[in-house]
Amino acid sequence: MSAEGGTKAIIAALAANLGIAASKLVAFVFTGSSSMLAESIHSLADSGNQGLLILGRKRSERDRTPEHPFGYGRERFFYAFVVAVVLFTVGAAFSLYEGVEKVLHPHHVESPAWAFAVLIAAIAMESFSFRTAIKESNALRADKSWVQFIRRAKAPELPVVLLEDAAALIGLVLALFGVTMAVVTGDGVWDGIGTIAIGLLLACVATVLAIETKSLLIGEGADPDQEKRIVAALESAEEVDHVIHLRTEYIGPEELLIAAKIAVHHDDTAAQVARGIDAAEARVRAELPEARLIYLEPALADKKDEAPTTH
């Protein structure tokens, strides 16, 4: 994910959420709708989410230090995980609490016109944010499905924004449904039902994001297709007989660590082996620009060596 593209999607989501949160709070004051209150808290939480994502990107750009020799690329994974576990979970818990309270102690929705006007405006703003995130994601996901993109993306910002915006749009529809049913039937319980549905939705999104960002945080490697390309690039060097084993790990969204044991020819000199290693590294970087750190261990070729292992 390019820095420019990711930042554009985050800023669009931040601007939309701030505007939506303000409008929903106004609607809540005039209507007393718990769905409106839950949605306003959701939007405020989303605004905090974007703030954390921006902070994570900024902190990840720090230079490496003796204490952190591989740099701070994982800061982006960490803050995305905080977004999933803390803010989304808090939003879900608050919505569920408000919804249950409203079901147990329902009251009529006041000034429903305010609620409808704000919800329609919020849907328009959130749709703009969602459209921006989709446009930025389409430039990167290629032929992958949306599920594959969210599961395999190494830069966490766009998957987070995509799921946030999708949850926000669905939540707005649920809020609109709850308010509409409460007005039509005169039963405030519907407002509570809509709020509970929003809470359950947020909990599901939090779970998906937590699982995916946790996987990145503890260390994900290259996907099978990338590993095949790495092996092919290494073995294309004349001095490399074959790859004995390979290990990879993303230490940041755009930083791939590669460690491999390569078999070299028995009669090669040390100088030839060194040149071969340099050539192999250059070919891997040409194939995968994110391969920033490559460590190759030469070993004498042995016919008993098995095919390269990657796990």
TrEMBL record:
<feature type="transmembrane region" description="Helical">
    <location>
        <begin position="9"/>
        <end position="30"/>
    </location>
</feature>
<dbReference type="GO" id="GO:0006829">
    <property type="term" value="P:zinc ion transport"/>
</dbReference>
<protein>
    <submittedName>
        <fullName>Cation diffusion facilitator family transporter</fullName>
    </submittedName>
</protein>
<dbReference type="InterPro" id="IPR040177">
    <property type="entry name" value="SLC30A9"/>
</dbReference>
<feature type="transmembrane region" description="Helical">
    <location>
        <begin position="160"/>
        <end position="183"/>
    </location>
</feature>
<dbReference type="InterPro" id="IPR036837">
    <property type="entry name" value="Cation_efflux_CTD_sf"/>
</dbReference>
<dbReference type="InterPro" id="IPR058533">
    <property type="entry name" value="Cation_efflux_TM"/>
</dbReference>
<dbReference type="InterPro" id="IPR002524">
    <property type="entry name" value="Cation_efflux"/>
</dbReference>
<feature type="transmembrane region" description="Helical">
    <location>
        <begin position="113"/>
        <end position="134"/>
    </location>
</feature>
<dbReference type="GO" id="GO:0016020">
    <property type="term" value="C:membrane"/>
</dbReference>
<feature type="domain" description="Cation efflux protein cytoplasmic">
    <location>
        <begin position="223"/>
        <end position="298"/>
    </location>
</feature>
<dbReference type="GO" id="GO:0008324">
    <property type="term" value="F:monoatomic cation transmembrane transporter activity"/>
</dbReference>
<keyword id="KW-1133">Transmembrane helix</keyword>
<feature type="domain" description="Cation efflux protein transmembrane">
    <location>
        <begin position="10"/>
        <end position="217"/>
    </location>
</feature>
<feature type="transmembrane region" description="Helical">
    <location>
        <begin position="189"/>
        <end position="211"/>
    </location>
</feature>
<dbReference type="Pfam" id="PF16916">
    <property type="entry name" value="ZT_dimer"/>
</dbReference>
<keyword id="KW-0813">Transport</keyword>
<feature type="transmembrane region" description="Helical">
    <location>
        <begin position="77"/>
        <end position="97"/>
    </location>
</feature>
<dbReference type="Pfam" id="PF01545">
    <property type="entry name" value="Cation_efflux"/>
</dbReference>
<keyword id="KW-0472">Membrane</keyword>
<dbReference type="InterPro" id="IPR027469">
    <property type="entry name" value="Cation_efflux_TMD_sf"/>
</dbReference>
<keyword id="KW-0812">Transmembrane</keyword>
<dbReference type="InterPro" id="IPR027470">
    <property type="entry name" value="Cation_efflux_CTD"/>
</dbReference>
